[in-house]
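Same chain as my last thread, 98 residues:
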Amino acid sequence: MRVAVSHSLTRAEVRRRLDAKQDSLASFVPGGMADIETRWQSEDRMLMIIRAMGQQLTGHVDIEDNQVVFDIELPPALSFVEPMIKGSLEEKGRKLLA
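reply #2:
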């Protein structure tokens, strides 16, 4: 699942905001029952391990010049929640970058 959120910030400012809000990334997953571990793979890529609904998911956040791209691998068993997760990522991602 891929969700792009546009922004008009510098890459450094996006990184700063993601760093400052790492603890709140779990709220991006509907239901609030997620645990998320993050680490920076590079200046522009944050890796994520997400534990939710008895599943472990992997993903990353890529910082680009005009957008931030959330990319999360959803197993088939969770495909039914994809629209809810996409909507939450779009909404909360826009607030994070506003």
